[in-house]
From TrEMBL:
InterPro entries: Lreu_0056-like (IPR054365). The chain crosses the membrane at residues 5-25. This is Lreu-0056-like domain-containing protein. Residues 48-97 form the Lreu-0056-like domain. It comes from Limosilactobacillus reuteri. Keywords: Membrane, Transmembrane, Transmembrane helix. Pfam families: Lreu_0056_like. PROSITE patterns: PROKAR_LIPOPROTEIN.
């Protein structure tokens, strides 16, 4: 009877240890925390206003942008306070077709 208890207890302990080992190996390793200085030193792409405008146009209406680029009719403009701008333009730059 004692032998059965020892065997069962041993099996339970080994099973518990096995589960703990599996759980520890499946956890992702912690990522190092970056402070503000480290993150600001990473290289970031620098885009001009025109490039950002084209990317925004591509996200909003890719077909319109592709057609106007293919026809060489794409116009990029910078809006000044004294300018008359196309309807719907509220920002400092815009894309339109010529």
């Amino acid at each position: 009877m004692k032998r059965k208890i020892v065997i069962i207890t041993t099996i339970i302990l080994i099973s518990c240890l096995w589960v703990v080992v599996i759980i520890n190996f499946n956890q992702p390793s912690p990522q190092p925390i970056q402070n503000e200085t480290q993150s600001s030193q990473q290289l970031r792409p620098k885009f001009t206003d025109q490039q950002i405008g084209v990317l925004a146009g591509l996200a909003i209406s890719p077909e319109w942008l592709k057609q106007n680029i293919a026809a060489n009719q794409l116009v990029y403009g910078i809006v000044k306070p004294s300018d008359t701008v196309p309807a719907g333009v509220d920002d400092y730059s815009y894309l339109s077709s010529s």
